[in-house]
Amino acid sequence: MPDKAHFCLNCGTPTPTEPGVPGRTMPTGAIEVNRVRQALADKYRVEHVLGEGGMATVYLAEDLKHHRKVAVKVMRPELAETLGSERFLREIEIAAKLSHQNILPVYDSGAVGGVFYYVMPVVEGESLPTRLKREKQLPVNEALRLAREVAEALAYAHKRGVIHRDIKPANILISEGHALVAD
User: Fold this and answer.
1) Which pTM does this prediction carry?
2) Domains in the chain, start-ordered, CATH in brackets?
3) pLDDT tens digits, residue range 169-181?
4) In the annotation, is 166 catalytic?
């Protein structure tokens, strides 16, 4: 990891160690959604918010070139100002080079009109916390397999100098019975 990196090199999300990164206290509003729609209109038709966290909002969109549904993760405006486009794009470029069956791939990224974004496939499935809330407990064999898949994904990234730094159940998606490391 570069000496001064305080962001997840997989997704560009600021880590808690980054000084001066403000927290998010309000949900994404209509003005922000419209700003994102306008900024990305040449490449993506943004449909609606899929989810949001303290660092970013994820939108369902249509990739206008490839005619497919995608998930577009957009950094909060206050974080984008702190980060700067060069650093964001450099870190996403590093993450985009990762190609592993258990790592959610990056399709595209950019910074347009103050909107810092990256594009991923829409995952048919659910997050690990959603699954655990529904089932309370995973069968031991499945839990071990998912843990092994996450460990293999992280080992692959680490061998290439990429450290996730925000691995948590919410960043593990389960699709077709297999783990995908996100964020």
Assistant:
1) 0.76
2) 30-181 (1.10.510.10)
3) 989 999 999 999 9
4) yes
